[in-house]
Amino acid sequence: MQITGTSALVVGGTGGLGEATVRRLHAGGAKVVVADVADDKGKALEEELGVRYVHVDAGDEDSVNAAIAEAESLGPLRISVDCHGGPAGGGRLVGKDGSPMPLDAFRTTIDSYLVSVFNVMRLSAAAIARTEPLEEGGRGVIVNTASIAAYEGQIGQLPYSAAKGGVVGMTLVAARDLSPLGIRVCTIAPGTFLTPAYGQAGEKLEAYWGPQVPHPKRMGRSPEYATLVASIVENDYLNGEVIRLDGALRFPPK
How far, in whole angstroms, is CA 98 from its chain's centroid? Predict the structure, then answer.
């Protein structure tokens, strides 16, 4: 499937991974809708690139549908990428004081990193299914974002690891569910990526994580995530797959 001539929805499109994806898809000829809650950054991208920005809560049906409608107004919606962030509660299952992890902290993280991903995926899939099929019956592709924490969650990451593991677990099932509609589903599981959100703390993170990555010995860069998104879009035989993007890093226990 070609990027050009399509419209694309990027949920979390003002963040480091999301902004890089917006720029890559825009450069490839897609009409891009940036869906996020960071209005200042979204409007700045809108002015710079000519993309559309919509304030979106990924967990809210009406909010996501509004962004989808905006994308459909620009052309056939064939690309949906979800890389939104949110609160990630953590801590040990049982603390040093003997108290169990608060249930609300677990629920909040699951809602943000799993339920909201499901919400975006189901609504985007229904919209992509309305498009005319292309060659070989394909209609479009959905790209979700997990983490290598889904496989090697560290101490204190139980809620986040569970949520990202859920995204991994949905991938093949969603691809099978949507295959009669010609919609592919893939997930990217990034390792440690250095994004602008870290600010000055990024130097310390790079110094800590960089040497632990087998090769290249550095943290990941947002354009590398965006390049993989573009490759998934353009390669029609990539489907039902979770792709680690981590320089062969495997998280230690802590």
Answer: 35
Indicate the DSSP class of residue 190: E
Can you give the pTM of this predicted structure?
0.95
> How far apart, in whole angstroms, are the C-alpha atoms of residue 35 and residue 2?
22
Amino acid at the residue 88: A
- For residue 198, the model assigns a pLDDT of 76
- Answer yes or no: 160 catalytic: yes
From 113, 160, 198, 237, active-site residue: 160
The CATH class that applies to domain 7-199+215-245 reads alpha beta
pLDDT tens string 17-44: 999 999 999 999 999 999 999 999 999 9
Residue 112 CA to residue 148 CA, distance in Å, equals 17
Separation of alpha carbons 140 and 79, rounded Å:
6
- Give the pLDDT of residue 89: 74
Q: Is 91 helix (H, G, I), strand (E, B) or coil?
A: coil
- Residues of 213-232 as b/e, b for ≥16 C-beta within 10 angstroms? beeeeebbbbeebbebbbeb
Residues 6+ apart with CB under 8 A from 98: none
The domain spans of the chain are 7-199+215-245
